Structures are given as C-alpha cells and as structure tokens.
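Standup notes
- HV: blocked on the assembly model, inputs below
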Amino acid sequence: MTQPQTHRLAYGGRIDRSRTLRFTFDGRAYEGHPGDTLASALMASGERLIGRSFKYHRPRGIVTAGPEEPCALVELRTGACREPNTRATVAELYDGLEANSQNRWPSLALDISAINQLVGRFLPAGFYYKTFMWPASFWEKVYEPIIRRAAGLGRAATATDPDEYESIQAHCDVLVVGSGAAGLAAARAAGAAGARVILADQDFELGGGLLLEPEQEPWRQGMLAALSGMPEVRLLPRTTVFGFYEHDVLGAVERVSDHLPVPPEHGVRQRVWTIRARQTVLATGSTERPIAFPNNDRPGVMLASAAMTYVRRFGVRPGERAVIFANNDIAYNAAFALHDAGIAVAAIVDVRKKDSKRAAAAADRGIAVKLGSVISDVKGSRDIHGISFRSVNGTAERVLDADLVCVSGGWNPAVHLQSHTRARLTWDNDLAAFLPGKPVQAERSAGSAAGVFGIARCAADGAKAGLEAAAALGFRDGAAFELPMPDAEIDPKVKPFWEVKAKGKAFVDLQNDVTTDDIRLAHREGYTHIEHAKRYTTHSMATDQGRFSGILGTAVLAEARGETIEKVGVPTFRPYVTPVTWGAMAGRHAGHHLQPVRRTPLHHWHVRNHGIFLETGLWMRPLYYSATRETGWDPILKEARAVRQAVGICDVSTLGKIDIQGRDAGMFMDRLYTNTFSTLAVGKARYGLMLREDGMVFDDGTTSRLSENRYLMTTTTAKAAEVLAHMEFYHQTVWPDLDVRYCTVTDQWAQMSVAGPKTRLALQGCVEGLDLSNEAFPFMGVGDATIAGCPVRIYRVSFSGEMAYEVATPAGYGERVWEAILEAGKPHGILPYGLEALGLLRIEKGHVAGPELNGQTTARDLGFDKMMKKKGDFIGRVNGERPRLMDSDRPRLVGIRAVDPSFEKRLRGGAHIVDRPNSKASLGWATSITRSVELERWLGLAMVRNGPDRIGQRLYATYPLKNEVVEIEICSPHHVDPENLRVRA
Amino acid sequence: MSAPDRLSPFGPEAKPGRHGAAGGTPVLMTERKVDIVQVMAGRDANAKAANLVKDATGLALPGPRKVEIAGDAMAIWIQPSGWLVIRPRGEEGALAKKLGGSDDIAVVDQGHGRCVLRLTGAHAGEVLAKGSRVDLHPRVFPPGSVATTSIDHITVMIVKLDAVPSFDLVLPSNFAEAFLDWLRMSAAEFGYEIRPAA
C-alpha cells in the first residue's frame, strides 16, 4: 500500500502536483512529485526516521535541505548500482527510485545496536585509539572484530557498476560557482562583458535562495533566459564544484543521469569536469548552523532554513506545531513561512534578551516570543512531542508541546572552496562567522558566501564581482541589467551562542556522534589544537566535513581553552566539498580501458589465427598459437622445433626503431653505443650495446647503416621510448653541437623475423629484387626488395641463433607480406611462432634480454667486455670501470643445465645457485629458464658469482618456496651453436 | 612502384555506418588516405627546408603551433625545425622520394607510422574535450592551429581546420584502433558516423 502524502501542502512550492512519481523506502511504497527530493517526498508522507547514527545508532531524521545533510543518508538504488551514504536531501526524486536506510539491524525502527546508547560512557571519544593501548591481546580477538563490524555506514556495491562515467576538460574566463542571486548576477555581468562563463550549481534547479522567494521568480527567470541566450555562457545544473586546486584548476562532478532510473542509452551517469578558469567567482552562499543542546539530534529537530525550504520550495509541512530556537533575526523568516503555511508556531525561543522589530512582528501574528531563553531538552525519541526551555541563565524549566524544532545559530558563509586555495579565513564579529580571506588565486567571493545577506544585496554584490572578474581579463563593455527588487531590511547580526549546558547528549557532529562533552574530553586529554581534537573525536570528519556544525566543536573547544573562536579556528577544509563516487573519478579508465591497447600491424592476423595473447606493457603480443587454446609446453616446443629444424616466422614489430640522420650521425652512434658504428659499412647491420651514465647496461639491439649519414637503430620493445628520450637528453644538453636529427619510426614498419635452416629456401620463393645467397647477402647484410608487390627491407640478423632474416615492410602491407612468406614457406614446413618460443630460442642461444638487462648488470657482467671500444668515449665508460664493478666476484652471466636429461625436475627463474643442496649461501640466481628443444632438458641463463670461472662445475639450483633442489652444470651461455656457424650458413 | 592496397590501422571494426545516439547532429569520422612525411631541418637549414617543401608540394612551412593548409594538403609544425607534410595518397613512398632530403635536412616517410582521422561536426570539440586538456575555443585555437596532446594516454596531434569545427587528428598507427575505441565511447552521446576512408 502506498503511504499517503499526509504532510503535503495543498498549494505552493516548486513541485508539479499534476504528476506523481512512485518510489520505495525500506521496501514501503511512497509517492512524490517532480521537483521533490527524496527527503522532501519522505517528509510529505510524514516520515521522520530516516537513519541511525554511526556510533550510538540513535534515530535520526532530516536536518537540512541541502548537501551539508549529516543525518538523512540512505543507500540509493540496488544491486550493482547501490550507492551508500547518499544524502536524501539532494537526491532528486524519480519514478521507480529505491532507497534503503542504513546502519541499522534488523530494521530501522528496531535497531539492536542502539544499545550503544546505554553503554555510551564506555565508548568515549578516542575509544578506537584507546583500544590500541591495552590489553594488547584484546586487539586482535576482541576490539578489531567489533570495530570492523561496527565501522562504516552504508554498504558499497560489490558487483561491477553497469553504468558509465566520463571526464571532460573545460576552459573559461570566469567560472561562477553557485546560482543564487549573486551567482546569476555575476554570470550575467561577466557574460554580458563578453567573457566565456561557466555557471555551476549543485542543485537541479538554478536559483539558490531565490527558489524560496516566489516574488523574485520573474527576476530569476529573466536572468536564466538572458544567460541561456548568451552563446559564451554555459549553465551546469546538478554540478558540484568539489575542489579548488593549484593554478586555478577546479574540479566538479555533474550528476548527469542520477535523476533518472537508468542513464539513457549512450549516456553517462556522472561526469567529472576539470575546469581551468582564468577567474572564479565563488557565490556558494551560506549554510545555517545549529546550536548544541541536549537531544538536538532527535528526528524533528532541524535547521530553521530547512523547515522554511520544505514549506516554500517543496510544499511540505515538516511538522504540525513548531518551536523556533534562534539567536538572530533572519530565523524569524522561517517562523513566518511556517505560520503562513498554516503550521502552528508554539513559540520562538530567542537567546537574545532585547526586544526587536522582528519579535514585535511575531507578536502581531500571535506567535509567542520567549526572549532571553534557550531550549534545554527535547522530549521524545523516534518522534518528538515537546521541548523544555528556560531562561539563558536560569534553571527553572518550562515545557512546550511541539513536534518540530527549528534551530538557527546564525549563518556560515560557504568558504570551503576558497579554503582549498590555502587562503586564510577572517573572523567577522557581527556575523560570528568566518568569512573568505585575502584571495591567493584568481578568485573572489560574492553574496552571502562573502557575508552579504538579502537577495537584492547579494545580486548587487554578485554583479560587481562578475564585472570585476571580467574586467581583470579585459572584458569591459557589458550592458547593465535590472537587479531584483529590494529586500525587507533584516539585520543579519547574530548574538554568538553555541551551547546550552544541561543534562543529556548535545551533539556537535551528528553523523559521527560527537558531543560537546567529547570535545571537552579531548581537551582534557591534551588534544587542544582543533586539528588534534578533530582527529581524536572524529568531529568534522563525516561526509559533511564539518559544514553542518563544525563550528560548534570549535566554540566548545575555545571555551575550554579560554580563547576566542577566531584564535582556535576550524579544521582545514580540503577537497572534496561533498562526497564524490569512485566511478566518477575513474571515468572511462575502468577495466580494459585503464590503458590503451597497442597493436602491431599484424594483430588481427594473430587474432584470426588463434594467437594466445600476452599484455607486455601496452602491447598485445601472441605468446603462441593454438586453435584449441591448449596450455602447457606442447605448442611452444612445436613452434621452437620448427625454427631449429625448418623455418618459423615471428612478429617483431614491437621492437623500437629510430631513424637517425645527419653529418654527425656516426659520431652520435659511437657515443651512444659501447662499440663503434662510424666504421660500419653502408648496407650492413651491427649489434650494439648501450650503457647508462652509471655504467650499467641500458639497452641493446642491431643498428644498420642505410647511407653515409643515415642509420636505423632498433631497440628492445620495453626501452624504445626511453632510448629516444636518452638520445634527446644527450643531444640537447650534452652535445648540442652534433649535427644530427632523429625520430621514431616504430609504427611505420611491420617487422617479422624469419628463422631456421630452411629460411633462405622459403624466402627465395617470395622475395624479388634481392639475391639472398650467402655470398651476395651475408650475415648482417641489409638490402631492399619486394614481396608480393610490397616494398620490404631485409636485415640478415638473428636472435634465435639460426639462419635468420628480418623482413620489414611499411605497416599497412604487413599482413600481405607475412602471408606471402607463409605461403612460400609452406613446402618447407614454416610455422608462426610466438613470444614463448622466441624466448626459448634466445635462452638456448644465450642472448640476453629483460631478465639479464635488469639495470644492475654491467657489460662485463654479461660477457660483453670485448664490445667496449678501447679508443673514444661513450656513455657509461668511466663509471662502468669503477673498481667494485670490475670485481671478478660479481655475479656474471653463465649458462646452466639440469644434469638430469629428463624434464622431471624443473628449473625455475629466480632459483638460487648454491654449492650444496641445503646451503643457504647463494652464489647467484637463475635469470631465464626454459625447456630446451635442442638439448632435451631444462636449461637457462644465470648470474653467478665469478661465473665464467665455474664453467664445468656441478652446483644446485634451489627454490625454497617450492622446496625444490635441482643439480645443474655451469656452462657457457651459448647452449646452441657456440661457434655461431648457423647464422652464417 | 605501385603497391597493393594497405590495411587500415583503425582495424576491422571501423566499418562505415551511423552509431550511438540517434537524432541530432552526428560527429563524422573519416580516415584520410594520405601520405605523411616528417621533415627535420638542421642548424640554419630552415629556409632550405622551406624551399624544398615549397618546390615539392607548394606548401609554405608554418611557424610554431601553426598549420599551413592548401586544399587537401597541409604542413604541420611539430617541433623546432620539424614538420609533417601531408597530402592525398599517391604512389607508395613518392612524396618522401620527391622531398629527398640531404645531410642537413632529414626526410622520413611516416605514411604508415602515422594516420589521420578527420573529425567534423558541431559536437566534435566537446568530444575531444573529454580526453584533451587543450582549449579548442576559436578565440584561443582558431583554424590553422595545431597542438600535440595526450588523449587516453595516446599522443595525438589536433589540427583545427575550420569553424564547424573540423579537426584532423594525427595519430601513431599502432594506437589508431585504441584511439577509435575511446573516440566512439566519447562521441556516442551525440551520435557519430564512420565514413569510408577518403
């Protein structure tokens, strides 16, 4: 059965009574209207109890009508879309909305953990920290499980979020945050002057405080129409500016589809904006603050402005009989708004003793004003039925029946965004509030955010701020526009009043259940700084970040310290102003979109031909090919055998390629590499080794000389970008005199390695225009040709140790050339081979790769002593010859082989090399391990202390994590063809 | 030499057609069939490079952050003394060959290593704003401007062609498919149409 809207006013408000929206709360059916929030719709059905508090599980209701709501937090939506801790006061109602209360068990009405209220004196502030102190044995067994179960409010969804989020970058001359009178006027003034303007407001309706003033509606609409007509003005409703960062960068989140049951097709749920604003106008308004008094957290106690908002904007009766508790004149507006709506106002309990015009106006309406009085208690628990009040200094209590208490302790300008810039707040005695301080970045505050009150005054202040912001950027010729009609004269001055000291819990942080006594306890225990008191008590650490009542804690602490509030200050405000979901932060970069995929020109051939892929960095590379997706060694061994016995083809397009040209290109190469390239003949390739400045090996690869002053360098896949940056660094900073130019051509070429004893036969079947015979095209030759009509460059280099030719072709022809080679190789048993076989072959041959080039090995460690040229300098020469690096006891490269020729006991990469089976003294470690197709056993490469001198020794490879010990023989790293005859065949 | 047709770096999924939200003004995406050559001048060789390019293509070489556009051809400033020369696709390697190069002017064929995607439509700028922090507003980035930026971790050169707005995006070919994937997600809310390569 749908709950009736018992508390909906017959008329008034900005809701559309002609349409009904259905929703559920804790499974019960309700209805509301377009224009409602979840909070206003629940209130319209008379719901008071919305949630339970964090620590004591006290019943809590709706306290505010805005984003600073500390109590009315719900889980919105269900399943994978569940969003915990959503403030019902800003959740726009939609048809089909599902919400659930949180932090209660088994139900909202009967919450077992409410027992915490009775044992509350055993759960003081800092309870959590005290559990660390004693007894130690309690922590793991008692405290932690209890705290873990109790911690947190709502439950995060665990299933993958089906919705999409995105981010967007925006630039503007003037960003206006807040769309109240000041914000609208600022945006229009700046827009009319010709500036690019963004106006953002967290609300789904633009207008801020104007939405409560029906007589100002024509002005609001006129302003919105004018702004909509300006092509350079962008209006962003439902957009919370959550942070103000360095260099005038602001972050905002737009709730694009949160007001819909599901986002529209192709639409996102939320969008994060990064806004670079040359000037910012903070028209963020101000928020009313409460007063601490016993049981000030009961459902039915709310801010006076909130009660007024529910009446004026949402056409809801928040109660039947209200008491106003205030220390200022503005709060009387709420009393009158309630009175106008037919709600009985039992009394205005005014802290101030002096009679005023406002009190007289209340008396004219027949509202009793209790001057010089305070509320000392609230009667009732889940629903309230009365209050006690007394004179400020008295003790004699009187009682009033009431089901609604509207509190106003004055107003806090919303200074949070300005505080993010590290601007210092200033204290205003009249308003008893912190105001924005001297700007640090290009911003100014306007309207009630700057301590200006009244619609017309705010509009005028906003217009001035907008003009100034535009003028600062040179936009000066804007047309003037009409300001709203003047407000009634209401003095915004407040009598500072923070706490009613009486028996009972008086809360200063409603969400985290921090009381006035907790703050005093923190002070007694030495946490006298506001930042320490905050952390000790968790005051101002809830989702509202102290926006609702943070200043109450400061006031209590100030009194305890005997100092002014100005001196004590408030905890530093930091982003985010209101909570932002992780989904929005992640945007598109979720799942497989975390990073882009880099594909070789042959990628789709591999996909079509059953390549099993491995992500290596951003690249996708085929590990091996298997139509049945079999695992294990079989497909790898089959591919490797094809290379050793016939011919194989492998995609090596991922290798870095750098085109280097200029008169000094040869000299540049000589300095980059340990060996000499200026002597390389045109049309030849040479293997080169690069060191870092500290002498460690940086990268290796073959480099070819294409013409007198042009080289083509290849790098490893992993270091391609680093090598180019390394070259840029040395050329720009160390040798700017070298006449050389270079750029990456990695993407320009598809490159494939064709290897195996039958390679020449295979290639001769498809290569045109190049004599591939050993005499005409020997090892390390480079030449141009065509295959299948496509231009190719062929390099006779080998990584596998077999006769091999690398064929490069412009990327777009990659597949055609690859398939032509496969076709020509078919009679010779050609097979494509993947990364695993490539690794197997290079380990057998003893070629180093990533595991050996680990940034800690020198050329000498890897057996490249002979590649260090004697004459001429190169990067890393001096540091590479440091005595410690020349120590023969350093781990140096050797080959290792399992003594047992079966595959029973496997070797593992990372295994330690020891001289006795149970020794714990490591002599080194295995870097690369494989099953061998040539020697039919496990073998690999290892870094072993004094390794080359140990060749022939029997040692052990031990892998204690798996309790494995394998007897090995130390040997040359070149397990296959150590004389290097095959590559020259 | 004339080579056979090449495979598009945008992959097999980039089939012509209308996608994303229906109605409204779609963003049009067209792979441009072009030749691309990178020209890098040595010390004091900028004028020589300008003459070389002018003679070969009729294009003047622009200054920093600018693009010289003449019909279907353009020269893009990419770095100090460095440009990309782009024109409709001709014989394989012919443009690089025609430009030739010398000891003080490096000419590098990037016709397969880079690719160009034309993005045009009222919402084209908004789509790019979802990935790039470059301000594309006409006051800041008028037609004839170029900026190198990072979109979805991919290095992209954005060339502004006209006030529609239309952009030519110069991409590394190995990332073309990944970029298109991002672009399609970002353009879906406006609707988009993949056009046949031209």
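- HV (later): unblocked. The mean pLDDT of chain B is 96. Residues 93 and 109 of chain B are 7 Å apart (CA to CA).
- Next: hand off to the docking folks.
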